Amino acid sequence: MKLSDAQQRLLTARSLRSLQASRLNSLLLVPLNTPVQLQDIEERPDVASPSSHGRPHGSLPSRRGRKLRIADETLKALGFEETAKRTEYFPKLFVRGAYDFSENRYQVHEGNWTVTLGLNLSIFNGGETAAALKKISHQKEKLLEQREKLRDEIRLEVNSTSFSP
């Protein structure tokens, strides 16, 4: 009985550890099933210091770090959007097929097959594609400026906390 009780507690402890590791990975914005490895820290920072704001020296501020990752992902998405918009300059090739059946005893062939092969080339669309590409380019420039501003703020904050007494 004691053995089964101990096995049950071990199973519960492993389950709880797995759940806590998933929560930690969720907070760190990494995949939930990434293994968590513990490390001993030789030197503990002074947490009570008002200059460190409760963070170890040199650590990235989490809110700004998340904003920086969001900006990077948004830049990647805008790149994909720009690539998709550029494809509107290319011709579009299409194939369409159909089968029509009408029951009529006076017709020789009651079934009718139709195949259409076409090429659609938009020569002039009012500059819509060019305007959309300029808009995306402007959004990317604006986001790059915001990203650089965030990086400068992070560098300033890290430098000010690492050099304070």
Q: How do the helices and strands line up, and which of them pair or pack?
A:
Layout: H1 2-27, H2 62-86, E1 92-101, E2 111-120, H3 128-162
Antiparallel strand pairs: 1-2
Helix pairs in contact: 2-3
Structural notes for this entry:
- Mean pLDDT is 81; it is low at 47-60.
- The relative contact order is 0.12.
- The protein has 165 residues and is of the alpha+beta class.
- The longest helix is centred in the C-terminal third of the chain and has 35 residues, at 128-162.
- The protein has helices spanning 2-27, 62-86, 128-162; strands at 92-101, 111-120.
Structural class: alpha+beta
What is the string of SSEs from the N terminus onward? HHEEH
Count the DSSP helices: 3
Q: What are the low-pLDDT stretches, counting only 5+ consecutive residues below 50?
A: 47-60
Count of DSSP strands? 2
Quick overview:
The protein has 165 residues and is of the alpha+beta class. The protein has 3 helices and 2 strands.
Give the key terms.
3 helices, 12% strand, 52% helix, alpha+beta, 165 residues
